[in-house]
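Predict structure. Input: Denitrification regulatory protein NirQ, 272 residues.
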Amino acid sequence: MAAAEKTADKNMGGARAPFYAPVSDECDIFEAAERHGLPLLLKGPTGCGKTRFVSHMAVRLGRPLYTVACHDDLSAADLVGRYLLKGGETVWVDGPLTRAVREGAICYLDEVVEARKDVTVVLHPLTDDRRILPLDKTGEEIEAAPGFMLVASYNPGYQNILKTLKPSTRQRFLSIDFDFPTHDREIEIVTRESGLDVSRTTSLVRLANKLRGLKGQDLEEGVSTRLVIYCATLIEDGMSVDRAIRAAMIEPLSDDEDVKRGLMDLVTAIYG
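Output follows.
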């Protein structure tokens, strides 16, 4: 089946899958990983559709999904669980990873490199043929229920010596490299998501690609497809093009006034 033919809102078990337009064979790879219980790593820039892809596939496959937004303070205990006081008693409460392991659900760790280092230690036994989750605090060793799948994502563009995945961790996962959609596909996505007409969407996507070309020069990161959709949504709602672009595609990229003026000069060159 061609990629375009897979672009659909699928109603699975009463839930409608979030719209996702495949750009390659990522849906096939996800489905194969899910069938065989293989862990999957999604790599790509912010706002290119990684989280939307996972949500789409979970509904498409009719699978429960636990999503964890990783951050600097996220520890292994936040994932696996901890003892808490309830009604004067100390009881064990499973974390999202443990619930997914017990239930045979999909657990998605968004921006996994942002989490504390002890998180990867917990993941290792789940990403090889053992498929177990040891709970040191309770003495349990939970074997992953059929259907459990571990999915993680990160943005290689933000890697540094302190925030990266070790090769020993990366090589436990299948991996898909995500990027922004092609010009025509991005127009399709933004038009569909915002309701803005194709002619005006085309100009926004052209601008976004010009801004992405400045990554590594004046900008740390290019304009995400998410921001283009936000901008198109504002314009469709009646906001002026200039104000919508400034709010959705310029201000989020930089706090430097000189940089923002330079970006607005680029907007003027494209829009006149």
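Confidence is low (pLDDT under 50) at residues 1-13.
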